[in-house]
């Protein structure tokens, strides 16, 4: 690939006017990302009409800033308030929020910011160098492989979260059930809609995520507010210590290895790789007892992975015209708005625009780090707000975010019904994350499974007819069998008297 095109892209993106658009995009993306339920996809969609008067280059430079800014904003509320701004930030809440409660909110935010920068830079370099290769590999991955990877995600997330596997699978079942609501995509038959036309399109993932996290957390805090009224959450020091750096630099570098390929494959996204990153960091850590209580590796790895995955999604969108995330779909609509069709010929027909967009990704990441790293202590001071006011504000913005999805009051009702479910899950010790994963990946897993079975005329061997699928199922079997094997080994160990 001719790097002279990239230098020309930098020359265009570094003009004062385009730098202003990039900085504006980063600030808007971060500001909108910290509102529960309004993630980068909605931010780009809301700002799409604003860019009608701009030339395509300026518009896409702003979109790139919004993309990365929105992802970091989502991780900010995920860490500080346990309310992810978007689905890619869900995993970050597992370790980031306990860190904030222990007075290490700024360290968690700094680890997230540097992770975003590292993952994004490595992912964008990979986009420049490997886009054609990754696109060719992605085309060869079939429905059985996708289904196997999603089954691996289901098993992995229930294996590492919570003290009880049964509770993990119960949470996953709740999510899969919510994901069934709506019309069957293949037959058109309604499922679990109870005759309500509004449910025919299913329940939006934003509503489910915000309901289970933001509303469920707010109700849980309200139920225990008098008991914990005197509790004050310290803000802590603003910078990472040497010990923190020793624990985070490897997760920062491992994240792109997991995130970029998953972002690049069609039907990918940041949800699967962020879990796998979390699972990997937990397995490799020497401080496994800290996981669930605020392990900084559990923030650094998934955040780096999510940022690299965001760069990876642009591979299939730019080279194949296939959006693998909601924000990529909105950006695809933006391309079409300007009469540009992404695909194999895009790099030839719109070379200047594409390389300027890629150069603006590098610039946006640098601006994101420069703007948000010094802001970590400021963001952490959100924890100083009295908890009744803080969680009242969360409920307000959660309601606004849910209403903005489709402008329907029914969505508000669904939000609070799901919030009550989230409260009940906390009450009975069910982890929330498997439910979110069930909602996000359940419909896609069903679609890929049925597609694979259609290709094989209903023969179950159609689900294991590729080396990748077989390898993934072997890994699933190992994850399921390992706890039983470990128990048997412990029973056979001689007891020293």
UniProtKB/TrEMBL annotation:
Keyword hit for Zinc: no
Source taxon at top rank: Bacteria
Keyword Coiled coil annotated: no
InterPro entries tied to this protein: DUF112_TM
Keywords, ordered alphabetically: Membrane, Transmembrane, Transmembrane helix
Membrane spanning residue stretches: 20-48, 60-81, 108-134, 146-162, 168-184, 196-216, 320-340, 352-371, 391-416, 428-445, 465-485
All copies of domain DUF112, residue ranges: 19-437
Pfam family of the protein (one): TctA
Protein name (record): Integral membrane protein
Organism: Amycolatopsis methanolica 239
